[in-house]
Amino acid sequence: MSDSARDKIAIIMRSKNEKPYLDEALESLNRQNFSDFTLYAIDSGSHDGSQKILRQYTDHLVEITPDAYLPGPVLNMMIEQAKEPIIVLLNADAIPQTHTWLENMVQPLLENQADATFCRQIPRPDAHFLVRYDYERAFDPQKMRASFFSAAACSFRRSLWEQHHFYEKGFSEDIEWAQAVRTSGARILYLPGPRVEHSHNYTIGEIYHRGYIEGEAEWYIFKRAPSIIETSYWCLREIIRDLLYTFKKARVWLIPYHIIVRCSKHIGLYAGRRQGVKNDGKI
Predict the structure, then answer these.
(1) Which CATH class is domain 3-197?
(2) Exposed, middle or buried, 26 (CB in 10 Å: 0-12/13-18/19+)?
(3) Residues 6+ apart with CB under 8 A from 43
(4) What is the DSSP letter of 26?
(5) CA 14 to mean position of chain CA atoms
């Protein structure tokens, strides 16, 4: 990294009870070949000692209550606080896998090859079989959806954020932001080389809840109305795809669980979209 890159990078880290991964993530940042960055952290009510760990690495720690956390407002507040021209977002439980991760993330910005980047995420060693399959598909350049973007580990020009702040009404703020800046002509580059370890083994209830908040956001952002027919179609399509993959990998005993997971997700999506429509007074 050239000297011209010095003092240009802000890393913004969001944390809530991430102690099992936080130490590793911060140590990985500490070992980066390029270390000329400023770390800004925000913790939303951790009770596992995460704040104490963060204070060892940064003087820029903001603490909020859990009920005050909403991704868009939090990101906008932290980016406003940071004045560096290049912003890197890294979740506290996302662990960079190499010493060159940061350099590789921001190099396309410094060389004017992109306006924003995001990298591959790999599942943890204890990730469930279906979680591993979802990550394999989501981050495969050949299968990746054109609209896909993840703020768990990404970088972008501050000037891009100044053109369009993160959506503050609900969740899926990174998807809305990426779509908006792409529409305005921004170049978003997916980097399969630099990687972070980041995954979650959600319970069935958590899967439903994630589907719900994503469905609600889909109405607010895309005006994607609830449809039982459409929901059933996409749910059945995912179940069939999972069945084929599960047979291929000889894990047939997992089929009942996979069906429950997909149904929970899509029921949550439908309920969330319906709630979004209701909140807008459309039903």
Answers:
(1) alpha beta
(2) buried
(3) 15, 16, 50, 51, 54, 61, 62, 63, 64
(4) H
(5) 11
Q: Across the chain, what does the average pLDDT equal?
A: 93
> Distance between CA 5 and CA 24 in Å, rounded?
25
With a CB cutoff of 8 Å and minimum separation 6, the contacts of 169 are 72, 217, 220
Name the residue with tokens 């999972």: 242
Residue 283: the pLDDT is 55
Orientation angle between helical segments 228-248 and 129-138, nearest 10 degrees: 110
Burial of 184 (0-12, 13-18, 19+ CB in 10 A): exposed
**Bridge-partner residues for 63, per DSSP?**
43
Report the 10 Å Cβ neighbour count for 107. Answer: 20
| Distance separating alpha carbons of residues 106 and 227, to the nearest angstrom | 41
Strand ranges of the sheet holding 37-44, from the earlier edge strand across to the other edge: 60-64, 37-44, 9-15, 86-90, 153-157, 116-122, 188-197, 95-96
Domain extent listing, the chain: 3-197, 204-279
Write the DSSP symbol of residue 112. Answer: T
- C-alpha to C-alpha distance for 128 and 120, rounded to whole angstroms: 18
Question: pTM to 2 decimals?
Answer: 0.92
Other CB atoms within 10 A of residue 43 CB: 24
Measuring CA to CA, which residue among 5, 193, 12, 217 is closest to residue 104? 193
DSSP 89: E
pLDDT tens-place string over residues 34-70: 888 999 999 999 998 999 999 999 999 999 998 888 9
